[in-house]
Amino acid sequence: MSNTIRLCLVLHNHQPIGNFDGVFEQAYQDSYLPFLDVFDCYPDIKIGLHTSGPLMEWLDEHHPEYLDRLATHVKNDRIEIIGGVFYEAILPMIPPRDRVGQIETYTKWLTDRLGAKIQGMWMPERVWEQPLTAEIADAGIQYTILDDFHFKNAGIPQEELYGHYVTEECGKLLNVFPGSERLRYLLPFAPAQDTIDYMHSIAEQHPGSVLVFGDDGEKFGTWPDTKAHVYDRGWLAQFFELLTANKDWLLTTTLAEASEALAPVGKTYIPEGSYREMTEWAMPAQQQVEFEDMVHELEHQEHWPQIKKYIRGGYWRNFKVRYPETDEMYCRALGISNRLHAAEQNGGDAQLLAQAKKELYRGQCNCSYWHGAFGGTYLPHLRNAVFKHLIAADNLLDKAEHKASSFIEAEVADFNLDGRKEVRLEDDKLVALMAPASGGTIYELDVRSICHNLLATLSRRPEAYHRKVLAGPSAAGGEVASIHDRVVFKQEGLDKMLQYDTYQRKALVDHFFDNNASLEQVALNNAMERGDFVGSPFDAKVRRNPDRIQVQMSRMGNAWGIPLKITKGVTMSAGSSSLEIAYLLEGLPQDQVLHFAVEMNLAGLPSGADDRYFHQADGKKLGHLGTQLDLHEVQDLGVKDEWLGIDCRWSADRPTSLWTFPISTVSQSEGGFEMVHQSVCMMPHWWVQGDAEGRWSVVMQLDIDTLLAESRLPKEIRESVNAS
């Protein structure tokens, strides 16, 4: 056959920062290793391979022989190594200097370890904005891959998407290949011959074409049911056999070879976007539902092919709006990047700054900043890992700036970039970020010794896929299904566990409930809110002493229509890992009892394990951290995680009733729908009555003990802790 076309197979292998070691190993055994074993048997086939930095570092430590095999294929021109952002950050989510820095750093790493010549890069989640062109070019990259969906949004019809285009920004050029959505859905789910037949039709209609498949390598073994399909039943070998048998008209080639052999089809400017499914996930949940219903209604109509090309979803950056918790990570990372840049400009300790930059880059890893068909931001261990590296970077910057071994300071600024002022209160042990304008809450509490944010929480919120949960599990048709088509419950009864929050689950959330409100009602967020303090703005002022600083927040509001004033003070002392929390209520009636509660959520402390439990000062254990407790006349409660090595001990200066309950979400991952523990809620509550002046007060203490963890920390982690 004379109508020759080129096929560029590009695999993207990735495991995020913070994923469990066992997950890395399982993916290696199920996907990365067996794929290479089959590939070795077909010397006429060439591929492109992008392996993300977190995974590449893990492979270098645990399976260096695998990287040695890759290096041999690189030397023999069978595998082109595709570069990218070292720690797989979404480029629009990080500053330009970090974009260039991450790409250049990874290029050097790949060149040194694999002997690779890096010309192209993988675009994380194919999230694109046109101004990125200049920075990518500045980093030495000549070409990248986006989805054909991007090009269609630029007005390019399908029949013109069988080659690469050039785009430009400020006179700097970048070649861009359109990845085929059709191939993404064919490989590896359809019979191998179906893909050959599809490409044969392209060869007949568009000779000289380039077809690009660019997608997750985990589809070949790690995604549910794919290992048996791809390897045990021989799909991959069959596919490679067919590619080899048809090599007279179908050439497997690398992106480098394709870009050198063929001129660009044309020039284009590409609108912002990502792959089609991602743009849908970025929309608010109700809009997703409406979007899905609209598509289902229209897709069978005669004019759908003409309509479809004008249909697109939301804007990726609005994940920060959908999930404010991800915006907290983004703002924290941006603040550290700015601080690091200033330290570099001022000539700080080069070695410490280099370490801080690596920690920052790791904290920019994208997976916990969004959510779709994968667990993403719903996975606590991924959020915890991001904060771990960001806090470590902050600690290293303190050392580089030669901060005193014991200090305390407060700063007022717009830390979360919402147009309102927050307060950062910190010493050498803790960092507390408070949002007076959002209910006077503490929204981040960093334990610096173990680089852990105790308020990396996640609220329960509606998701478009929850209607699938309510409909129950179902089996997808066919031998093996894409994760986009599967409805699998990893636990029974998830349809009865859907609960939603109307506010962010943070610390110092002030409630007034009915006097007979129950633990069950409060845990389900079904108790009627009788006050107007949750989420409402508080005034704030900072009181400074040399070794002690208090942030005082107050609000005139009401409960049951009764005018009330709440004043709460958060006090930190230099060298202390404790917070003193004092409340004063004014305007309380003397002839009426009001039910007042203060909510505190602690994150990163999993439930259901014997070594993670509630306890009291006398040593009595009260159950694992998923236990609902309804305590009365207590003045202390501890939350201990022996695995993490932390003990958070709450106490009060008056007898108190106390509720505890877990906050868990029903979320979607590639394995199915599952219940995920997000945080432990502790809620001291009182039936309060005014004294002769209509006042009532309480002083609480939150003591954080990490001596157990510190005794076990590796040397390199201990050195990142802020110490002289």
State Rg. 28 Å
Give the number of DSSP strands.
28
Mean pLDDT over the full residue set: 94
Major beta sheet summary: 12 strands, antiparallel
C-alpha end-to-end distance: 73 Å
In DSSP terms, counting alpha (H) and pi (I) runs of 4 or more, how many helices? 22
CATH class of the domain at 465-712: Mainly Beta
The helicity comes to 25-40%
Structural class: alpha/beta
Shape: elongated
What percentage of the residues does DSSP assign to strands (E)? 25-35%
Give the name of the CATH architecture of the domain at 465-712: Distorted Sandwich
CATH topology description of the domain at 465-712: Beta-galactosidase, Chain A, domain 5
Described by its quaternary structure, the protein is single chain
Low-confidence stretches: none
Explain what this protein looks like in three dimensions.
Helix 2 (53-62) crosses helix 3 (64-75). A hairpin with a 2-residue loop joins strand 18 and strand 19 (548-559). The relative contact order is 0.09. With 724 residues, the chain is of the alpha/beta class. The chain is elongated, with a radius of gyration of 28 Å. The strands form four sheets. Strands 17, 18, 19, 20, 21, 22, 23, 24, 25, 26, 27 and 28 form a twelve-stranded antiparallel β-sheet that branches. The chain has a six-stranded mixed β-sheet with strand order 4-5-6-8-7-11. Strands 1, 2, 3, 9 and 10 form a five-stranded parallel β-sheet that branches. The mean pLDDT is 94. Among the domains are: 5-88 and 104-123 and 141-165 and 175-271, 7-stranded beta/alpha barrel; 465-712, Beta-galactosidase, Chain A, domain 5, CATH 2.70.98.10. The chain is 31% helix and 29% strand.
